[in-house]
Amino acid sequence: MFKRVPGTKDILPSESSLWQKIEEITRNTFRLYNFQEIRTPLIEEESLFNRSLGKATEIVQKQMFIIKNKEDNYCLRPEATASVVRAYIENNIDKTSTFSKFYYIGPMFRLERPQKGRLRQFHHIGCEVIGSSEPALDAEVISLADTLLRDFSISGYKIKINSLGCSLDKKRLGAILQKALKEKLGKLCANCKNRFKGNPLRILDCKNGPCREEIAGLDIRDEHLCQDCKDHFTKVKASLDSLNVSYENSPRLVRGLDYYTGTVFEISHDGLGAQDALGAGGRYNNLVKELGGSDLGAIGFAFGVERLLLVQSPQATVRSNDLVYLISLGEEAKEEGIKILNTLRKNNIAADTDYEGKSLKGAMRLANDLKAKFVLIIGEDELKKGVVTLKNMRSGEQKEIKQDKLIEELKC
Ligand code: AMP
Q1: Start-to-end C-alpha separation, the chain
Q2: What is the pLDDT of the chain when averaged over all its residues?
Q3: Which ligand 1 atom is nearest residue 119's CA?
């Protein structure tokens, strides 16, 4: 028997309605914020990610699904920001509108060790805004992430924010960390020892116990920030306050990818266990230029859908089902039943029937299992009178309805 690839998941019909609900809410909320959907390919050139995420990052070093081609190396996208920026530049979108708001929903691929909340194929709901460095935009994007979570009926999360500052500030932060950790290098894990030279900011992100202890003892504030970046971050926080978004200022928060600059944020949830990030994002003001486009400020975030589903409140998972289940008794009634089914569907009413020749009792049980809202019964009697028997499965009420009044009755 074949098995699915480790770290992948089948989304079965019992779960897919939850996915559809999340997607529906996502589309609606992004529409309210005037974002438009973008769909980029699942495969890209490997070098796109080496260049944008950074060669020293964990994703590029260990987690890319590479597809070797004759001349080029392709890879399955590990995230979508680089793809969206590539598409933005390649399709000359900046020539028609310098300010653009994109959102996306789709699978991402990372060759990780599978565990709870960590898959090799997972799904992002994310957005990218390109064309502005205004602090008010940072606040809008963070508040949009907050709104989405509320719309998904998720509570109990924490929004942590920080500012890495511009490229020079990031270098300064790296140097501050190297200085502070120099004497403690022996206590850090092998990964952090490697990070110390090439990517010291990533040490702040290490999940290893002894490294976390050392990091907790560091006195890190905002000394690395230049005046412009300090002012920017102060305005972001003031805007968040005026939007009533609750957040925590978290000077140790960094993002694992090279392209981040300025405001970064992460949303965590205690219900997730070790992999506690529901989503994360931040500014990447140099990436559009770095990938060959204009010098434009940009910001985005992504949520992991599998993790959203792990913490969604049960009330959001109640399935609403307006199915009409038709039971026809006898050959003649069956023929008429098929016509009724067709009419219901043409009128946008979800409807189904029994194709296994079940008895009335068996078919009623099936309708119950399917959580149908109504059962329609048509037998010899009903045929003669030109009616159907309509049973409301929630209230138990049952009545005869003239066939030509059925749609009207079901729609009210
Ligand atoms: P990142 O691009 O790493 O910042 O990821 C953004 C969000 O995607 C995280 O906060 C998680 O919710 C989710 N995520 C990232 N990697 C995985 C993974 N391997 N499996 C499941 N979800 C993931």
Answers
A1: 49
A2: 93
A3: 20
pLDDT per residue as tens digits for the range 396-411: 999 999 999 999 999 8
Residue 175 or 273, more confident? 175
Residues of the chain with CATH 3.40.50.800: 324-410
Which atom belonging to ligand 1 lies closest to the Cα atom of 255?
Answer: 4
List, for residues 112-131, the tens digit of each pLDDT value: 999 989 999 999 999 999 99
265 lines ligand 1 (CB under 6 A): no
304 Cα–ligand 1 center, Å: 5
* Closest to 218 measured CA to CA, from 255, 188, 198, 261: 188
**C-alpha of residue 278 to centroid of ligand 1, in Å:** 7
CATH number of 324-410: 3.40.50.800
Structure tokens at 280: 């994360």
Domain with CATH 3.30.930.10 in the chain: 13-166+226-311
Q: 138 CB contacts (<8 Å, ≥6 apart)?
A: 232, 236, 239, 262, 263, 283, 299
Does 118 contact ligand 1 (Cβ within 6 A)?
yes
pLDDT surpasses 70 at 315: no
- Give yes or no for a contact between 400 and 389, defined as CB atoms under 8 angstroms apart: yes
169 in contact with ligand 1, CB cutoff 6 A: no
Q: Whose CA is nearest to atom 13 of ligand 1?
A: 304
3-state DSSP assignment of residue 282 = strand
Task: Return the pLDDT at 217.
Answer: 87
Q: What is the fold, at CATH topology level, of the domain defined by 13-166+226-311?
A: BirA Bifunctional Protein; domain 2 (3.30.930)
Q: What is the pTM of this model?
A: 0.89
